[in-house]
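dumping the sequnces here before i forget
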Amino acid sequence: MSSPIKFLAQKHRKQTAIIAVIGSIYVLSSWILNFDNFSGFTAVPKAFNWLGVNFFPTAESVELLPRIWQKLIETVALAVSSTVVAAIIALFVAILGSKATGINNYVHVVVRGIASFFRNIPLVAWAMILLFSFKQSDFTGFLALLLMTVGYLIRAFMEIIEDEASETMMALKATGASYFQVIFQAVLPQIMPSLISWVLYMIENNVRDATLVGILTGTGIGFIFDLYFKSFRFDAVGMTILAIIIVVITLEVLSNQIRKVIL
Amino acid sequence: MLEVKHLTKSYQKDKPALTDISFSVEPGNFLAIIGPSGAGKTTILRSLNQLIKDDDGQILLDGSDIRSDNKSQLRKHRRQIGMVFQNYNLVERLTVIENVLHGRLGYKSTFAGMFGIYSEDEKREALDLLDKVGLKDFALQRCSELSGGQKQRVGIARSLIQHPKVILCDEPIASLDPASSHTVMHLLKKLTVEFNIICVANLHQINLAKKYADRIVGIRQGKLVFDEESDMLSEEILETLYDQTISKELK
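..and the predicted 3d for all of it:
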């Protein structure tokens, strides 16, 4: 009778120990880094205050809005186009590579490897590598976003196919349907909502990332951000950030609505 | 006639899943396969349309062996064998009638099948079959909106539009409530007689097996231990089959 009670007491002790360990790791690492916790925390309000004063958009920066707006649209278009092209490529590769619809296990392992390779090279690294070949242009940004997104979507699509389509695939195979009939009549309709949901998520993500890529490739909203920042026009930088935030939130709300309808 | 002769299968070496299974069924007959979980019932059923490749034996449908088929012969055999699943395995996003029409894919060219182009006759037949399973007014509803029992009836209509000689039912009522279970079993029995087809069903519900099946095959640890008219099923046999007394189930 006493063993469950003992077990619970032990569990409490374990949890306390884990929290203590995490706490001491924190203390140890701030000691190694010579990090002054107290002044670190008190600096936070000051930093925000500085941000608020310097980055607050002024009447002058409002006049820049049309230009910011135009570059922002370019950036959103870049994110959308790279994601859509990536989704088409990823769908083909995922169908060839998934355990349920794929050619064989070797192809599965190779496809997973390729997807993981594209995914795990940081976006900034992709952009900098591609800059050598394609110079500072929208296409460099497009390609960098495309490659990373392909990596993410192949992995996601393969898992969706395996999770959501295996059972209906079996049913259609049993009726004597051929491979392509099964793909078009069972797999694609079955996975479509999850697929669209992932594409929307990647578009949201890529609008943010396209800003970063733009700083490197000198295009889109990233270029404007960089330009204002380096010429100390912090009020204009604040305006740019505000515009980006508004667009990203709008996109998020929009895609959530779309999800609600299709799921 | 469906004849199974000396069917053998093992997933791992020296661990046979099925040893020397033989039985046969005539058209118009309902055969139930019973036995504990893991006995090999699903393996038998899925061997019958070669969703699982067995190791040895013969599966004869009207005298021709399904096991020696090449790809296109297998496709032709499979379209004569309908299948009904425990989880219905419908494309939930599509409408009821689209799911029923999927049963015609085995008869269509790859292109027409890919894009779901069906003839007027096929569409009319799909509606007739929906009427037969009691879902006439549901044709344009999405399958995700149906109840379990309704989904299973769509599954049955999908298998019937194949003009099958055999319908295989893999635990057709395991996910259904008692009332829906009876509806589905009754329907399967009725259609078996009406279309003069062979119905083979894996069942856990011994009382329903006894009530609706013409014959019962008992499987235990991959071996056939019972193959008789369903009236012959007795308490002693159930005890050897399940290693415990389950007399209540017979009533």
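DSSP finds nine helices and ten strands in chain B.
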